[in-house]
Specification:
single chain; Rossmann fold; globular
């Protein structure tokens, strides 16, 4: 039985088909996703990532990441400690936060696989251009949220689903490593599920803050 990889609800609806893959949408959380049988294997996935040429020396890449960096940095206390999850082959966002006075750890399953950093706690966690790659977004988001104290921030950057017609013409689905697609409604579901305040401060950016008083 096909289950939603975010909320585990059964019986997702077929949403779209292109020449390579099928896409399903969950009726509960509205996540759109590629079924497991149509995902790349680890070696194929890494070969795509190896082609990325991101660097902290690239001002264009810094400007791109600034859409998340700037609104999140404004909300952080001086010296807040962070984790950049899915830092990629050329960690840059972590450098930007360190330059702003925030000690940073990084984690990436391919390029910085020291999982001991996931056993610590942080004032904020970032995941830029990561959510769309997650095979198990529910498990991964829960793990990241558990790293945060009450009042801690999770900053996510990923392009959002805007409807079925736009989806069919969307360049974002052409990347074979993109397997999960969130909408604004999906992020609001995430907020309700894990007790997070949700903000959309910029295009493709969502900030989720763990509530000071978690709901019972």
């Amino acid at each position: 039985m096909l289950l939603c990889p975010l909320c585990a609800a059964p019986h997702p609806l077929h949403y779209h088909r292109d020449s390579r893959r099928d896409y399903y949408q969950c009726a509960t959380c509205e996540l759109v996703f590629v079924p497991p049988s149509q995902r790349l294997g680890p070696d194929q996935e890494k070969s795509v990532y190896d082609q990325h040429q991101n660097s902290p020396d690239d001002p264009g890449y810094r400007a791109f990441l600034g859409r998340l960096f700037e609104p999140l940095n404004k909300r952080l206390a001086p010296g807040a400690r962070g984790l950049d999850f899915g830092s990629g082959p050329g960690p840059t966002l972590s450098v930007m936060f360190e330059e702003a006075g925030h000690p940073m750890a990084i984690y990436d399953p391919f390029y910085a696989p020291d999982s001991t950093v996931l056993e610590q706690h942080y004032d904020f966690v970032t995941a830029t251009e990561v959510a769309e790659h997650l095979f198990e977004p529910g498990r991964e988001l829960e793990r990241l949220i558990d790293l945060l104290p009450a009042g801690g921030w999770l900053g996510v950057m990923t392009k959002r689903v805007q409807g079925r017609e736009a989806f069919s013409r969307w360049h974002y689905i052409l990347d074979p490593t993109h397997v999960c697609f969130f909408s604004e409604a999906t992020f609001r579901w995430v907020g309700d599920c894990w007790g997070l305040e949700v903000e959309f401060p910029a295009a493709d950016v969502v900030l989720l803050r763990r509530r000071e008083r978690l709901r019972k």
